[in-house]
Amino acid sequence: MVDVTIIGGGIIGVMTAWELARRGRKVLICEKGRVAAEQSSRNWGWIRQQDRDYAELPIMMESLQIWNGLNSKLREEIGFRQRGITYLARNAEKLRAYETWLDGARAYGVDTRMLSMRETQAMLPNAAGGWVGAMTTPSDAMAEPFLAVPALARAASQDGVMIRENCAARALEITNGRLQGVITEKGHVKCDRVVVAAGAWSSLFLKPHNIQLPQLSVLSSVMQTEPVAEFFNAAAGDGRFAFRHRADGGYTLSPWEEHDFFIGPDAFRNFFAYLPTLRQEFSSTHFRLAAPQNYPDAWQTPRRWHADEKTPFENCRILNPKPSRKTLERVLALFSKAFPKIGRPKIQNSWGGMIDTMPDILPVVDHAHISGLTIATGMSGHGFGIGPGMGKVTADLVEEQKPAHALEAFALKRFKNPK
Ligand SMILES: Cc1cc2nc3c(=O)[nH]c(=O)nc-3n(C[C@H](O)[C@H](O)[C@H](O)COP(=O)(O)OP(=O)(O)OC[C@H]3O[C@@H](n4cnc5c(N)ncnc54)[C@H](O)[C@@H]3O)c2cc1C
Questions:
Q1: Ligand 1 center to residue 25 CA distance, Å?
Q2: Does 193 map to a domain?
Q3: Gap from CA of 10 to ligand 1 centroid (Å)
Q4: Nearest CA to ligand 1 atom 37
Q5: How far, in Å, from the CA of 40 to the mean position of ligand 1?
Q6: In this structure, are 333 and 377 located in the same domain?
Q7: What's the structural domain count of the chain?
Q8: Is the CB of 312 inside a 6 Å radius of any atom of ligand 1?
Q9: Rounded to the nearest whole angstrom, what is the distance from the C-alpha of residue 398 to the centroid of ligand 1?
Q10: What EC number(s) is this enzyme filed under (predicted)?
Q11: To 10 degrees, the CA torsion angle through 63, 76, 26, 177?
């Protein structure tokens, strides 16, 4: 018997569990594969306030403070560095859009400022990107995701969080609308509170319980260069590609928005909810007719199952998509053109990650109609940086305490669901 079971060992699950353990709760994380083996170790490592939805900004600002504290508290190196994030603008229209965001964000107390063309050139001397200016947030930060989240999980387990890897949650046990526990592949766990923080799998897990999340996933491709002469020690992007200095002396390079999308039953089901996003991102999306076997929205993936048989979560322990070679080749060409002195760096590694997203690019952090159930998912491509803050507000929800931040924008009821 535990007080709270958390389904999913990514940054959201880990930070929620840790927070609850610090508040004296007995917490178990069930992870179907390995801790942080999906999005939470595959991301760019940006810890970003800049250009955030205003609804997320206060949580993100608190997150940054938590990251700062964690960095000195953890006994392991996680590559946390507060060196700023910069959006480079290729035309006046983009600059204006950034200015508009900044106009609204000033009220929150961000240190973001606009850079002139000359200041942008001074930031990236010898570059040939054709940038007309930029927006920068000096207090924005970065960390090495593949180091950070496992280190956070180890720290959480030292504070009492129990973590079971290779232990998929199959279903919730519910009597008269109240949670009684979780059925896992390794047996029953008795508890009256559960957090679903299952990343790209949340909607599939919740569907048999009559909770509809219009969640989809896109494949984003990333690569890592060999160490090269340092020309910039922070993170930036220009609407076509993004680059971040790594603690090992290389750079993490990736496309800005370009991604692959596997068409499946959920894509059809949620077509109208995503239509506005689709219109905006049509040209940067490569459509594929079907997802690889066993992916959450693959055509053959069962939508319902018996809790005493193998489930889709056990058929895919780790979502490990192949990166798109073509996309990465384009990014490399753009990068070497923008930084001719660096040229084409050698690529040491490349990988893909399935980003889980919601139609309005905002997460769901809310209770559901089942008493004792909290959902914290749909981080929509920016859950790494905000993870510590989201862990805190999710813990507040679990404890039935008034969260320290407004969560209305993340309510489940913005989508059709039973009350
Ligand atoms: C390429 C890429 C770049 C990104 N860049 C950034 C960035 O720079 N900054 C930023 O802030 N964010 C970024 N993100 C987004 C960020 O990584 C995610 O928003 C965040 O990691 C989501 O965390 P999570 O805990 O919700 O999900 P995940 O990390 O995906 O974890 C969910 C976990 O749940 C487990 N699980 C699922 N179903 C079950 C089940 N039934 N039983 C048990 N376990 C289950 C999964 O195995 C998985 O480990 C990026 C993402 C990608 C892929």
A1: 24
A2: yes
A3: 5
A4: 198
A5: 4
A6: yes
A7: 2
A8: no
A9: 20
A10: 1.-.-.-
A11: 50
Closest C-alpha to ligand 1, atom 2? 43
Interatomic CA distance for residues 101 and 134, integer angstroms: 13
On whether residue 70 sits in a domain, the answer given is yes
Separation of CA 77 and ligand 1 centre (Å): 21
- Which CA distances in Å does 229 have to 122, 226, 250, 342, 343? 17, 10, 9, 8, 11
Give pLDDT tens digits along the chain (419 positions). Answer: 999 999 999 999 999 999 999 999 999 999 999 999 999 999 999 999 999 999 999 999 999 999 999 988 898 999 999 999 999 999 999 999 999 999 999 999 999 999 999 999 999 999 999 999 999 999 999 999 999 999 999 999 999 999 999 999 999 999 998 999 999 999 999 999 999 999 999 999 999 999 999 999 999 999 999 999 999 999 999 999 999 999 999 999 999 999 999 999 999 999 999 998 888 888 889 999 999 999 999 999 999 999 999 999 999 999 999 999 999 999 999 999 999 999 999 999 999 999 999 999 999 999 999 999 999 999 999 999 999 999 999 999 999 999 999 999 999 999 977 65
Ligand 1 atom at shortest distance from the alpha carbon of 198? 34
Q: Specify if 419 maps to a domain.
A: no
Q: Is the CB of 12 under 6 A from ligand 1?
A: yes
**Side chain identity at residue 57, one-letter code:** L
Whether 147 and 124 map to the same domain: the answer is no
> Considering the domain boundaries, does residue 340 fall inside one?
yes
Question: Residues 174, 211: contact at Cβ < 8 Å?
Answer: no
| Range(s) of the domain holding residue 65 | 4-84+139-414
Instruction: Give the separation between CA 1 and CA 62, rounded to whole angstroms.
Output: 32
Q: Does one domain contain both 180 and 92?
A: no
